[in-house]
Amino acid sequence: MTAQEIIRSIEAEEIENIKQGSKKKLPQIYVGDTVKVGVKIIEGGKERVQPYEGTVISMRNGGINETITVRRVFQGVGVERVFLLHSPRIASIKLIRRGKVRRAKLYYLRDRVGKATRVKQRFDRPL
Question: Are 119 and 99 in contact (CB under 8 A)?
Answer without folding.
Answer: yes
